[in-house]
Amino acid sequence: MKYINNIFTIEKSSLTKIIKKFETPIFCYSEKKIIENINNFKNSFKSFSPIICFSTKSNSNLKILNLIKRNGLGADVVSKGELMIALKAGINSKKIVFSGVGKTRPELIYAIDKNILLINSESKSEILEIESIAKSKNKKVDIGIRLNPNTDAQTIKQISTGKKENKFGVNEKTFIEISKYVKSSKFLNLKCLSVHIGSQILDYKPYQKMLNVLDKLIKKTKLNFEYIDLGGGMGIDYNKDNKKFNYRKYNQIIKNFLKKYNSKIIFEPGRSIIGDTAILISKIIYIKENSKKDFIIVDAAMNDFMRPALYGAEHKIIPLKKTNKMINKIYDFVGPICETTDKFLTTNKFQKLNEKDYIIICDVGAYGSSLASNYNIRPKPAEILIKGTKINIIKKRQKLQDII
Asked: What is the pLDDT of residue 116?
């Protein structure tokens, strides 16, 4: 993704041609970048060849999931719907793990019937529910127990999942109590110790602390786990300041951990695979001048791309066409929805903009389309996947009549 002759281009496709053909806003993905990210992730941990289960919640587009499957990844799912779409994408059931704190009985029945790799349980009550279903079917079900390691991921508080005040997992005392119960059950196999401390993590040190907690727990319980599920959460460089996650150091501390334990590692990456592979193109509807700043009102809104409104996430915004006519003026990039939080970015230096120009919101592949909604009865954007000069529509833009 780069400028060629001052026009932003994905692979070999100029975006000016795309906007003539499609309405905005529109999500555009690079197939080459997705495959590159998958291969980079695999190569970062090739010394112990983990099972890589893509986080379906980060992007649940069927065609994206199929591409991910064709490149050897499994799926981490958190609902029956995500499990269904992962299976429809062709992902092998034995490469699927089911996470989440509130799995319902019908969801658990479906997962058990599909013989997935693991159900990662997060409470004693859930384990009793799984056991009840397994007993009714007279089968043994493979499960993991998710530990809450009380580890600060040093990320946005709304996407931290590993501290004791978070709803996820169980504490050490409960873990030991549950594991004893599971080991005595005729219908449950305790296969996995699962943990996930948060998302958009750029420092390997929280993972080091997490592994120290796991090490102490395994020594204390003397349990042998076939799988250690370390979750995902590795961040990407949204701010373009070259602050990147150190995969080399994370790989080394896992290798040190595995010298003590003969377990298979499971990862659940989402953002690190798909985050920087997509952009959102939007058209400037109006420019509303103010004594302090100009509001750049675009046709994309918080229903199309929720992260900035949901927890203040910042995404770089760039012009579709470069003119190099920079001005020192405060621009507020906002959408048309009737909420003050329908805002993407504030900047005090940008290229001079005009109404009907196009802008690009960067790095929207993760939690972009998957968080989109129909708030204000707005149709969800189309999604296209670009491969060289080939443009594939992987989700059509919704029509108002279909919503209404």
From this structure: 98
Q: State pTM to two decimals.
A: 0.94
Domains of the chain: 2-29+275-403 (2.40.37.10), 31-273 (3.20.20.10)
182-187 long-range contacts, Cβ below 8 Å, gap at least 24? 182/127, 182/143, 182/145, 183/223, 185/131, 186/135, 186/140, 187/131, 187/134, 187/135, 187/139, 187/140, 187/141
* CB burial of residue 102 (10 Å; 0-12, 13-18, 19+): exposed
CA nearest to 375, candidates 318, 288, 300: 300
What distances in angstroms separate CA 188 from CA 35, 42, 203, 270, 378, one per listed residue? 37, 31, 36, 29, 46
Q: What percent of the chain has pLDDT over 90?
A: 87
Gap between the Cα atoms of 264 and 230, Å rounded: 10
Measured between alpha carbons, how far apart are the two ends of the chain, in Å? 37
Distance in angstroms (rounded) separating the CA atoms of residues 69 and 393 = 19
302 touches 309 (CB < 8 A):
yes
Active site residues: 338
Q: pLDDT by residue (tens digit) across 127-186?
A: 999 999 999 999 999 999 999 887 654 554 554 444 456 566 799 899 999 999 999 999
The answer to whether the beta carbons of residues 124 and 174 sit under 8 Å apart is yes
Three-class DSSP labels, 31-42: HHHHHHHHHHHH
| Region label for 126, one of left (φ > 0), alpha (ψ between -120 and 50) or beta (otherwise) | alpha
Rounded to the nearest angstrom, the gap between the alpha carbon of residue 301 and the centroid of all alpha carbons in its chain is 20
Residue ranges of the chain with per-residue pLDDT less than 50 = 153, 156, 159-163
Q: What is the pLDDT of residue 152?
A: 55
Cβ atoms of 30 and 10 within 8 Å: the answer is yes
Nearest-angstrom CA–CA distance, 366 and 370: 8
Read off the amino acid at residue 231. Answer: G
- Give CA–CA dist 33/194, Å, rounded: 29
Give which of 403, 397, 353 is closest to 28, Cα–Cα: 397
